[in-house]
Amino acid sequence: MKLNYVKPAVLEHAPIAFETAVSSCNPPSVPVNAPGIGDICVNPDQTWEPYNP
């Protein structure tokens, strides 16, 4: 038996940030603006590196 697919309604549009392969902050890492340092990329192991968009 086949079921019909129902496309969900869009209730609210959220801003989307696209990342490219040259970005040093790919998931699961998270870009963060650190006061006094600037934009950094926080890795899952709690290390960080400069964020290069």
Describe the protein's architecture and organization:
The chain has strands spanning 30-34, 38-42, 48-50. The chain is mainly β. A hairpin with a 5-residue loop joins strand 2 and strand 3 (48-50). It starts with 29 loop residues before the first strand and ends with a strand.
Compute the CA-based radius of gyration. Answer: 18 Å
How many extended strands?
3
Number of helices: 0
CA(first)-CA(last) distance: 48 Å
Strand content: 15-25%
List the helices and strands and how they pair.
Layout: E1 30-34, E2 38-42, E3 48-50
Antiparallel strand pairs: 1-2, 2-3
Identify the notable features of this structure and list them briefly.
53 residues, mainly beta, 3-stranded antiparallel beta sheet, 25% strand
In short:
This protein has strands at residues 30-34, 38-42, 48-50. It is mostly beta strands and 53 residues long.
